[in-house]
Amino acid sequence: MTHKFIINIVGLILLCCVQCGYAQVENAGLRPVASIEPSKDQLMQIERKYGMFIHFGINTFHNEEWTDGSKPVESYAPSKVDAEQWVRSARDAGMKYVIFIAKHHEGFCLWDSKYTDYDVASSGNTADVVTEVAIRLVKNIILAWDYTTLCGIEK
């Protein structure tokens, strides 16, 4: 099995879990309910303890946290993407997981998307950052999650 095959399978499973879970919640008309007891998933996250949250994308090059998708794709211009260094730093610091933001709410994709031109393939640096990070995570045996923003979605 190749790394790309493994990464694609893991990504597909994560995507299905996120999409199915969200669809069930939305179809049932459910909203989050406050609790004084942590859920099973929250307890699992607590047990993982120390991890890294990588938030890198087009907004990085505008020194802004939030944008609306109107930043020109050409402005995504890293001179180099060193995913090996990112993941090695996490591993060397003793981190057990990495949450990687592959696409934030402004819509810029850190991979070559077949659904939009607002992606790395249309920018000055066409490196598939998602694949690069995923390969390094597998190599360094660190748990990984993609993070999906659901900003502005209310029932």
Give the number of helices: 4
**What sort of overall outline do the alpha carbons produce when their principal axes are compared?**
globular
| Count of distinct strands | 3
Report the portion of residues in β strands.
5-15%
The parts where pLDDT drops under 50 for at least 5 residues are: 14-23, 149-155
Q: Largest sheet at a glance? A: 3 strands, parallel
**What fraction, in percent, of the residue positions are helical?**
25-40%
Q: What is the CATH topology assignment? A: Transcription Regulator spoIIAA
Topology, pairings included?
Layout: H1 3-27, H2 40-48, E1 51-54, H3 83-92, E2 97-103, H4 129-139, E3 143-148
Parallel strand pairs: 1-2, 2-3
Helix pairs in contact: 3-4
Describe it.
The protein has 4 helices and 3 strands; from the N terminus they run ααβαβαβ. With about 160 residues, the protein is of the alpha/beta class. It has a single domain, classed as Transcription Regulator spoIIAA. Strands 1-2-3 form a 3-stranded parallel β-sheet. Helix 3 runs parallel beside helix 4. The C terminus is likely disordered.
